[in-house]
Every structure is written in C-alpha cells, then in structure tokens.
C-alpha cells in the first residue's frame, strides 16, 4: 500500500510556513521534539519516543564461533524492522530502499565507529565469542526514524547485561543471573544521529523533521556524533549541493544536541539502576502515567448529594421564567402549506392496497376538486385515507391526479 500523497495546497502551506520560520507543532527551527525513554523488565529492552515516533529496542546475546579474519573479536549485528503497524506504507516481508539505507547507516554509526569494545566479547580466541544482536522495531512512524533508532540502539546496549562466564582449560562455564551478576558491555562512547532537512535547495534548514516535513524536503543531512564532538559518520541524501559553511553549521548544532541527548540518556540509565537496586517497581507497565491508560478515562470528582431538594428549590427560584410558551412550535411562513393532520401514511402498505383493489373490482375512485384553489398558506384536510388527491389549476384548468402506488397523471 502506497502512502497517501500530499495535495498541492498542503505542500504550499508547509513550504510557506517554513519560509516564515514556523512549524506545525510549534517548534523553532533548531528545536528537537520531546524524548522519552522507558525500560522493560529485562536488561537490554527499552522504548524511545521521539515525539510520536516510537522505536522498541531489544538486545540479545549468544556464544558463537568468531569470524576467521577476526578470531579475537566479538560480533555485532543490527536489524531494524519497519512494519505496517508503524505506517500503512511499509510492506511486510520486503526490504525497501529506505530500510536498507537505515540499516547501513546504523551499522556505520555504531559498529564502524568502534563504540563497543568487541575484543572484550572474546571468551576463547578462535573458538568462542559473544554475538550481540540489536533488534529495533518501529512502533509508530512520525518522521526522523534514524535519530530515534540510533538513540534506542545505544540506550539498549548501555542497559544490556550479558551472562558471566569462566574458562578453566578448555571448559567454558556459563553462569545464570542467580549464580553471578550479569556483566555490562564495555562502551567507549555513545554516537547519536542528528538529522537536518533542507528546503528550496538548502535555503532553509530544520532540525528533527517530522513526517510531513520529510515529504516536502529537498534533501537530508545526517551527522552521527558523540559528546566529545567527534564525527562518527555523515551522510547526505536527496541530491542537493551543500556549501562547506552549511556543513560546519550543522556540525555545531549537532554537537549541542548530542550533548543534551547524552545527558538525558545517562540520567535515564541512572534512575533505572537506582530503582532496581532499591527493589522498586520497574518496567513498561510502571512507566505509564496514572489515569492515562485510555484517552477517555477521567478522574472521579466527588459530588455532594446532601440537601438535594433544598438546592433544587433554590435553583428553580433563582431561575428566570421562560419568555413565552408556544403550544405549537410550527410557524407557518409565506410559501408553505400542509395537507392533512399528520395521519399515518398507508401508501407504502402494498398488501392492504391490493386487497382494496380486489374488493372494489380494480376500479379506482377519484376525488376531483375543480373549484378549489390551493393557495400557499392554506390548510385543507382530506378525510379518506389512501384515496387519490386531485389539485386543479384555475388558470389552465389542468388536473394533477395523485393515485396510490402510481405516478402522477395529467388530465386536461
């Protein structure tokens, strides 16, 4: 299923707002959306919310044989999934160009930057090493997937704990969490991606574009950087030509944003670790705010039910009487008329009409009103039900006969 394209009016509105330095969600040009990090019950599980974009990260490990050319290094594997749950435009069971580009960018950002000490993952050189697998699942798509995915990946890796092992000769012993405390990974730095959207061939710049802004942008620049202002990777897409000053400007902005995000990640990890040590409640269920499970759930308000009759009498006494009581709320105006007194219509009853025709021998009785003039505003009553009504025009003496279950006929 293809995504619904933007109309020309929406496109012009978005571009005009960007020219006036305004955004739909009220942010400024260099503002990031709110970032919220929550952890699961197990180590290495987290959900990162970047505005309405949500990414679930899960880290797992297993002992495998190392690669032949790197016998003393562990293996890192990243996998990002885009399902139809996040957006209808994503097709299941097929790797799109966007998915391939995002996976490659994540590998360059996290694996090629050497943010994790892979040599510390070696158990027995050439025989047993740890394979760390990072699975990322996009839960909701509202733009800037790569930034949310990079934050979720590094948070999950920092939060993950692998089982402890011991080696005695050729025997490798794997301990459970009950026997020995799990061991955290050795992480040198935390690279984070920051996306910049360019409009009108680089004239206008926005940080952290949302889904609608991504549709009208001309190009995208992604800079992966750590808090030490070291650029881990940089990628430009969209076919735009950027000047050297523009790239330097974006790198300075990225340095500020990465420092803020890194501090937020460290605070979230410290809070989770403190809660686990104190024996408090943790997990996704505890991170949900109270009274916020459903959108329509409201807080209970106490109501005083004492002295209801006295309060009702006071309200009635203070209330103003109605200005005028109308017995019949129907007001006749020039150009309107009514036929009958609202008696139940029997025209739709086919069985009764057929019985009447059989009893009367199939002869239709007509009531002709020749000398009656039906002016607008007059009300005339027809007593017989189901009988045809004939209205005459005095000027041309034209009769219009309305018979039950038949179309109108004209008789001159």
UniProtKB/TrEMBL annotation:
Cytoplasm keyword on record: yes
Gene3D superfamilies, per the entry: GHMP Kinase, N-terminal domain
Region ranges (Disordered): 348-371
Cell location: Cytoplasm; Nucleus, Nucleolus
Domain of life per record: Eukaryota
Sample GO molecular function, one term: RNA binding
Positions with biased composition (Acidic residues): 349-363
Binding partners and assembly: Component of the RNA exosome core complex (Exo-9), composed of EXOSC1, EXOSC2, EXOSC3, EXOSC4, EXOSC5, EXOSC6, EXOSC7, EXOSC8 and EXOSC9; within the complex interacts with EXOSC3, EXOSC4, EXOSC5 and DIS3. The catalytically inactive RNA exosome core complex (Exo-9) associates with the catalytic subunit EXOSC10/RRP6. Exo-9 may associate with DIS3 to form the nucleolar exosome complex, or DIS3L to form the cytoplasmic exosome complex.
Family assignment from sequence similarity: Belongs to the RNase PH family.
Protein name: Exosome complex component RRP45
Organism the protein comes from: Rattus norvegicus (Rat)
Gene: Exosc9
